[in-house]
Amino acid sequence: MKYQAIALLLSALSAAPAAAQIGNPRAPNPMDKAKATIVEDFAWRDPFTAKTTDSFDAACEVTGVFNAEQYTLHQLFDKHPLGLWSYSEALKDFFSEREYPGGFSGLDRHGWDRNVLLMHYDGVPVQVREWIEEQDRTESKHQGLFATFKKPKDKHTKVDARWVAPKDGVVDREEDKDKVILFAPGALYEILPLFVAESSDCKDALLDLSKYSPEPKDGAVVAWPINHTRPSVREKRRQIEITIKAQVLKQKEGGAEAADEGKDEL
């Protein structure tokens, strides 16, 4: 599934009368909703299961809690703090040709119900910021998972384009407080260990994404967002908390046999 749905909805937004742009031009039509599916090629699964604990010990474990704001595409019509109106045009340009990496657990609710997360850049661990910036410089396959923007001066101002890190690698971290990143929840799975590495006793292992694996195995790093709260619609708040857990695995004696038996049962 491509971000083309975002582009189409944002085109409708930009073509709407000015008065309609302030709020939702219409309520989502239930007939517009498609059945939620897992995005194609989503490789990640919850590694913290009984099957894993039967076969592996945690040589290192860390958990961290992070703040975010959660929106749906329908809230692109609403101004902050209820919606992402200020970023709508820039998002159309940025996401129009990129694959949608899914919501939490890779679930794609399609159309208006697709989720978008916002994090304040200075609230994101510096290792995550550096990774995002490096993808932009090198045009890697992960480029486009996260879009960085400078904050608008107020809720009535639109942001024209994303912020791109300078090619020379020199970034003024004092200015990070004036930026945000926007992304689909599914983008998190590519770099979950980076979020919690700094506060762990195994920082080097968690920062080495070559050790990060969707499948539990000896010496691998595994991670998962073990909990995420929901926005309070009644209180008109978009704030959520995401709890990320990561482990470095060490195979138990006899664990290989237990893992093989588990595969045979599948």
Helices and strands, in order, run as: HHEHEHEEHEEHHEEH
Compute the CA-based radius of gyration. 20 Å
Q: Write down the overall geometry.
A: globular
- Distance between the amino and carboxyl termini: 28 Å
User: Helix/strand/pairing class, anyone?
Assistant: alpha+beta
Keywords: Signal
Can you offer a commentary on this structure?
By secondary structure, the protein is an alpha+beta fold. The chain has one domain (4-265). Helices cover 24% and strands 21% of the residues. The strands form 2 sheets. It has a 6-stranded antiparallel beta sheet. Strands 1-3 form a two-stranded antiparallel ribbon. It is globular, with a radius of gyration of 20 Å.
Label this structure with key terms.
266 residues, alpha+beta, six-stranded antiparallel β-sheet, 8 helices, 8 strands, 21% strand
Short description:
Keywords: Signal. The protein has 266 residues and is α+β, with helices and mostly antiparallel strands.
Task: Describe the protein's topology.
Blueprint (H helix, E strand, L loop, with lengths): L3 H12 L2 H4 L15 E2 L11 H6 E17 L15 H8 L11 E2 L6 E6 L5 H13 L8 E4 L28 E5 L8 H5 L6 H5 L13 E8 L10 E13 L3 H11 L1
Antiparallel strand pairs: 1-3, 2-4, 2-8, 4-6, 5-6, 7-8
Helix pairs in contact: 1-4
